[in-house]
Amino acid sequence: MNNFELKNPTKIIFGKDTIKQLESEIPADAKVLLLYGGGSIKKNGIYEQVKKALTKVEVVEFGGIPANPEYATLIEALQVIKEENITYLLAVGGGSVIDGTKFLSAAAVFEGETPWDILTKNIRTEVGMPFATVLTLPATGSEMNSGAVITRSETKEKLAMGGPGLFPVFSILDPQVISSIPQRQLANGLMDSFSHVLEQYMTYPVEGLLQDRFAESILQTIIEVAPKVLKDPTDYDAAANFMWSCTMALNGLIQKGVPGDWAIHAMGHELTALFGIDHARTLAVIAPSHYKYNFEAKKEKLAQYGERVWNITEGSIDDKAYAAIERTVAFFHELGIDTKLSDYTKEYEGTAEKIAQRFTDRGWLGLGEHQNLSPDKVEKIVKMAY
Ligand code: NZQ
Ligand code: ZN
């Protein structure tokens, strides 16, 4: 097992009817900017619950943060923070609203001229403006990690940022919020969280016995609850296990002591930036070809995953590893998610070359757990995903 440090300061408040606890968690003297997305919270009762819990503090609102949080919109919110002397941010939404809020937390204290530099120059935020979240969509784990991904439609870019100052102070996770989520977004949440575990697990063995079993248990839980969540999002126990699995998949715990891959996300983000494909679905497009292309390097973990998660016990390591990839693709299809780029766009010709060129331009010359996935290999993987 590799050396590691682990610190996660986010307080999690989990369970039924917990949104009202905002009242005691937000400092009484805070001037709060309440941030939300396209308006789903106004239809499902979450907005009312939040407002009721915030009657004792001063609140300004900023709605309209789109899925794949858009830089131009966030710059408008930054103006509001400055004009209104906001001291505390509250994100009520899914990964997009939370990530947008993390950007604002960083941008509010940023001393440079252009906040976009935070993304392009890899500026880590040591201390941001304090913020909290009310999670409305389990998927990204953003509610308990310090990373964010921001989109700039003007340049068709989607870039990551982060830093130890970007953990939420607290996050409220009430699984009842799931009942209003459309099927497409439920499937996305299941897919994204599953893939977060795979990115931190499907590498090579390092005797991280407990880490492997943490990861496998999250995968098994997602597989078990997926059909229940999709069939009946009001099933509280399924919703609760789904929500907690998503948080645990990307709150830092399972990545400690083991190598990480994250090349699937790097390629996937480009497909969202270029075509607007939902984040989770881009991962389903890239993962199968990524695992096939890197089969030799990953086959031991693929076989272990096949055995422990899918009960694939017959055959050699190669047989089990290959069957594990096939079973994974079948699982994505069971979620209702297509796994080829051509299922999402007719304009796919040239995409692989474009992504490889972007990675070259950014100096991303060696992705993956061995840092040897060069742009020419990226090009081949993306082509295999057409
Ligand atoms: O905007 P509203 O009206 O709220 O509707 C949203 C949005 O249309 C809707 N929704 C959310 N909660 C709902 C609901 N509809 C009904 N009932 C509810 N309770 O769902 C739609 C999608 O929301 P979004 O926040 O975009 O989804 P998700 O949570 O999947 O977030 C995706 C974003 O997170 C980034 C992705 O790249 C993408 O930009 N990621 C962030 C990560 C992180 N910070 O750690 C890691 C991930 O790998 C990912 O990259
Ligand atoms: Zn993801």
UniProtKB/TrEMBL annotation:
Plastid listed as a keyword: no
Domain Fe-containing alcohol dehydrogenase-like C-terminal span(s) in chain numbering: 187-386
Alphabetized UniProt keyword annotations: Oxidoreductase
PROSITE patterns: ADH_IRON_2 (PS00060)
Domain Alcohol dehydrogenase iron-type/glycerol dehydrogenase GldA per the UniProt entry, residue ranges: 9-175
Coiled-coil residue spans: none
Gene3D superfamilies: 3.40.50.1970, Dehydroquinate synthase-like - alpha domain
Protein name stated in the entry: NADH-dependent alcohol dehydrogenase
The organism of origin for this protein: Polaribacter sejongensis
